Amino acid sequence: MAIVMLASGCSVAVDGTARPAPGAAPRSLSGSTIRRVLLGKSALSRIVRQPLNIDPGFPPSFAGPESLPGDRSASPDDCIEVAVMLQQSAYRYRKVRSVAQETWRPESTTAAVVRVKEGVVDLPTPDDAGALFVTFTRQWQRCEGKTVPLTGGAFRLKAKVNEVHVEASVLAATTSIELDSPNQLLDDSLPVGRAIGVRDNCLIEVEVDFASMPDRTPRQLDDVDASALDIAQIMRDKIGALR
């Protein structure tokens, strides 16, 4: 059954179509304006309920498609895009014009949230953004329950994809990051909330990394799922306000 999601300026259907919404004139953000879509310290700290600061190891970035991380030659159908945001392979052939990114870290070393990443991708038209959102939705749904190897770091890690769902033009999922090891003593996982939103000609990506939760409560599990989703939805609202 097709799921139809209304993104301001276009209606996006998971059956593969993207069309203008009735009575809505498509708009586009471009250039440095997309940096204003990113949430600041107070808004992000309020959403995750703890103080955050910009991570000096990853300064704010506004650049072209060359700033997207990862292997451009990797298969775009790979589930790595669910586990790691803004991958080159996911956006190749998509005429990306610019990308704005920020990374935040907690003030406290004992905080529940250990990192927040937010990004905005500027595509030429609302139709381009809507079509790519449909592609991501289908891809993430296929990745539900799968385990993805994470390469390029000092340790062998893997991520399991769970809880893929769509709410109000935002695609969300949770992943569990753990060491790729047969040693049962090393099976603690780090929960991560992921979200991709669409509005007008922009795609929004969010990642919220949590500290290990050996004895997770239902409230904590809800926080993992909701945090990235909430951030992405507020960023969508900012795009509407900037038009």
Automatic annotation (TrEMBL):
Record-annotated PknH-like extracellular domain positions: 31-237
InterPro entries linked: PknH-like_Extracell, PknH-like_Extracell_sf
Annotated Pfam families: PknH_C
UniProt protein name: Sensor domain-containing protein
Source organism of this protein record: Mycobacterium mantenii
